[in-house]
Each structure stands twice: as C-alpha cells, then as structure tokens.
Write a structure and sequence with these properties.
heterodimer; A: alpha+beta; OB fold (Dihydrolipoamide Acetyltransferase, E2P); Ribosomal Protein S8, Chain: A, domain 1; 15 strands; disordered C terminus; B: 11 strands; globular
C-alpha cells in the first residue's frame, strides 16, 4: 500500500500543486490540480482523485448493473439502467451469432418489465451503452425486493472487501445483489430478514459519510461487535472500521464485485 | 433615473441600516428539495429562493440533444405571492430574460462536454422577492449544481453593486434598485477570476463603472465563502477540515 493523503473538497478547490496525474473528477489547470465534484480528495503516488459524494450514475465499461427491460426492437432490448442513457442488450448476445429476428422469439427470454443483471460491454458516451448477459450470474432476476440508492453510496454499501454487505447478509439471512448503478435487489426466505436488510441498506445510504457506521449497522442488526483488529483479520481487510471515511474507491469496488460473484 | 430622496443618511447608513460596503444577510441551505438531484435554498436579505437541479437526464424533446455536450436549461420564475401585488404566474418578458442570462452565467462553470446527449435542468423559484433576485438565484443554482454532483470547473457566486446618492454601494436592495442611480449585477467564478454575468441598468462614468465592478466582485467573493460553508456543512457537518492524515 502506498501513502494516501485525504481531504474534503468542493468544486473549484485546489487539491495539490505540482507534477501529479489527474485521475477521477480532477482537472489540471496550469500547475494546480482542481476538484470538479464534492467529495474526498485522495493524493497518492499514482495521481490525484476525488471520490464523489453525490451525483447520478454514468455507466463505465465493465460495470455490473441491474436494469429493467423497457422495450425491444427486432434486434435488441432497451434497458433502463437508472442513468441518463438507456442501455441496449443486443439479441445476438442472448441467442448467439446466428440470431434471426424472423426465426427466434425474443419474448422467450426477456419480457418488458423484467429485471436483469448485466455487465456494461461498451460505452464511450457517444452512443448508448451496450450490455451483455454472457457471464456467470448474469441474466434475469426472478424475484426479490427492489431498492434504489444513490450510485455514489454503492462503494460504502459494499464496504472494504465486501465487509458491510457481508455483515448485512449474514445477520439477516438474505442475499443482496448490488448494481453499480445504485439498484439493489434483496432476496431471502424470511420476510422479516428482508425488511431488516432493507432498513440497514437505507441507513447506510443516509449516513454513508458518517463515522462508525459499521458499528451502528451491527447494533441495528443485533450482531455482536468485534473489536476492529479482530474484524480486520476476519475479513482480511486493512482497517475496516476506521471512523469518518468513505472506505472504498471505485477501483476497489470492482475487485469487490468480483469477490461478490465468486462467493 | 432620477433620485427623489436621499437613500444614504448623514451617518453613511442606507435605508436598511447597512454601510455602503455591507452585504445583506445571506443564508444558504443545501439539499432542501428531496426529489431533485441537487437543491439549495437561499435567503439573500428578504429574497427567499429555491433552486433545484435535475440531471444529467434524458433530453425531451429528443431533437434538442447535442451530440457533443449536455444541454443546460434554466427556468427563473417568481411565484404569484412573491411580490406585494400579485404577480401573474405566466413567464413574463423579464423572467425569460433572466432565465437566459442565468443559463449563460452558469454554463462556463459546468463541464457540459462530460455529459453528451443529456440535459441538466435548473429551476429557480422565487418565493419572496427583494432587489437582486437574479444574483441570489445564480448563487443558489450554482450550489444546487454542485450538490447534484455535476462536474464543475468552479462555483459561480453573484452579487450586485450600484450607485446610490452618487456613491458606489454594494448589494443593492429593492428600494435602492427602484430609486437609486444604477444597478449592476455581476456573476463571478472566484478561482478562475472570470466574470460570467455583467449587466447594468443606469448611467455610470468610466471611473464609477470600474469602482462598481470591483465592489461587485468583492461582494461575489464574500458570497462564495458562504456557498462554500453551506456545501461543507451539508456533506461534512461541522468537521470542515479532514485532518490531512497519511494512511499506510
């Protein structure tokens, strides 16, 4: 791990000066690095970035998203992914290369109103994002309780190495599916468990940037609190419950999502 | 414009008791409209204004969309009860103009090229009006845009200056606007040191003009500090400085 300097910024704030590389939500103006969003600025060895605390979802390639089928043409489905761009799922992705709109019935796979998990295959802002369901655990979601949270809260809901979401899943006996676009699906056998998980997720969303959130979530879920050191060992994370921090960056989240899937 | 009475008394105090360099009380709260992606409520003297931002979102009608950048749409509106005689709620000529200048004042601060084919809608609703509502509106809209998490090069702060009793004064109120000599609203990006709005109603000599614009920019800088505080308060509470900690 490298040294990281953190600080709160608003748009227009100067984060650092000198020869740094601007990464996320940072622009270079002369010799200064300027934040373009409200958030927490991190100055590391590889560059400067701002982890945003607000904003709508903008798709990125390889994001795992949860969307709703809203329409279909003869060649693709249109999917609402909670963004200003509606996504497309090409029929070829589902039926294979030899898809023929005359022969194959698209209604066999997805109907309008279905919820799906998908991965963003291509997106460059000039065209609508393209999705794929050709991967493990992707495709139609049969059942579950649907929630919408702000996309900027997703890293916090997952927590370092998935610690937060694991806590919620274990305590409520549910399975929580999180899309990078802020759509969350909770499934489980026990309605009470689902209700509790939804409450916990809402709490994470509202209090995402406050200190000791993991502890408070544990209190809500009646989970015995383990001291920070032990917990860190348990989830194999570095300092999982350090107060007052947004714990994960988007890049880390991608790793975490992979961990999620493998689980 | 001819002045009929003195608006600055022998002690150098104005009609509302301020000195010539004093701003009215400005209070900004962030995130008051829950349905919006970003919002702010500003009290600028007697002005009470709500600004709400939606977006980036899909453009309707679709033909308005730009392939290389985002469309910014602004609406400035005064509610019927914002003035002492009822104001017709239909958009007036003045409101259409203010909507336009407001859009042009905010556009340079936004990185619209980051959201091609999308639209950002800014709604500014004046609940109670006093002088300088366009400045207060721009100030609130800039905070709401930052709250909505839209990429910005800088915030935009706005403040007016003007001429009253042949003196250059900061932050003109309603009486001074109507009875005074000149009114000059200015919007300014403090970090970039760029003016994004400059209007002038009245007559000023070149010297007075320079004095007026300097004073207005000074006012914008004061407003900027209040904007900054309001945003910090919403997102980080009272803890405005994160200790520059070093993580291993």
């Amino acid at each position: 791990m490298h040294d990281v300097k953190r600080r709160y910024v608003i748009p227009g704030d100067k984060i650092a000066e000198g020869n740094f590389r601007p990464l996320m939500n940072v622009i270079k103006s002369g010799n200064a690095l300027i934040a373009t969003r409200i958030g927490i600025a991190e100055t590391g060895r590889d560059g400067v970035k701002v982890i945003p605390l607000s904003g709508v979802y903008i798709p990125r390639v390889n994001d795992l998203v949860i969307g709703k089928i809203i329409d279909h043409s003869s060649l693709s489905w249109e999917v609402d992914i909670n963004s200003c761009f509606s996504a497309h799922l090409p029929a070829q992705d589902v039926f294979g290369r030899d898809f023929s709109p005359a022969r194959d019935d698209m209604g066999k796979h997805f109907a309008i109103g279905d919820m799906i998990t998908a991965r963003v295959m291509a997106f460059d802002r000039t065209r609508d994002p393209m999705l794929t369901v050709q991967d493990r655990d992707l495709g139609k979601i049969p059942t579950g309780e649907l929630l919408k949270i702000s996309a900027t809260r997703v890293p916090r809901l997952i927590g370092k190495r998935g610690s937060m979401i694991q806590t919620i899943e274990q305590a409520t006996q549910t399975r929580v599916l999180i899309g990078q676009n802020g759509i969350v699906v909770v499934t489980g056998r026990n309605p009470e468990g689902i209700k509790l998980a939804v409450r916990a997720i809402r709490m994470v969303e509202e209090e995402a940037h406050t200190a000791n959130l993991t502890q408070r979530i544990k209190m809500l879920l009646n989970v015995p609190d383990t001291p920070p050191q032990q917990e860190a060992q348990r989830v194999g994370a570095v300092d999982a419950s350090k107060p007052g921090e947004i714990e994960s960056t988007i890049d880390e989240v991608e790793e975490e999502l992979e961990v999620e899937e493998e689980k | 414009m001819t002045q009929t009475r003195n608006l600055i008394n022998e002690n150098g105090k104005r009609t509302d008791g301020r000195t010539i360099d004093e701003l009215r009380t400005v209070k900004i709260t962030v995130g008051r409209v829950k349905n919006a992606d970003g919002s702010a409520f500003i009290e600028f003297g007697k002005n009470k204004i709500v600004a709400a931002v939606y977006g980036p979102r899909e453009v309707h009608p679709k033909h308005m969309a730009q392939p290389d950048r985002c469309v910014l749409r602004c609406r400035y509106h005064m509610v019927p009860f914002s003035t002492d005689t009822r104001k017709n709620p239909a958009p007036s000529r003045r409101e259409v103009e203010i909507s336009k200048v407001m859009r042009e004042a905010l556009e340079p601060a936004l990185m619209l090229e980051d959201y091609p084919r999308a639209a950002i809608d800014v709604f500014v609703e004046v609940l109670q009006s006093d002088g300088g509502s366009r400045c207060a509106g721009i100030t609130a809209a800039a905070v709401a845009l930052a709250d909505a998490g839209i990429n910005m090069r800088d915030l935009v702060a706005a403040c007016a200056a003007g001429k009253v009793d042949d003196k250059i004064v900061l932050d003109i109120n309603d009486t001074e606007d109507k009875e005074g000599g000149a009114d000059m609203p200015v919007a300014y990006m403090p970090r970039l040191e760029q003016v994004t709005l400059l209007q002038l109603d009245g007559k000023l000599t070149p010297d007075q003009f320079n004095g007026c614009i300097d004073k207005a920019i000074g006012g914008c800088k004061m407003v900027y500090e209040i904007q900054k505080q309001a945003l910090m308060q919403k997102y980080f509470g009272n803890e405005t400085e994160l200790k520059e900690e070093i993580q291993q």
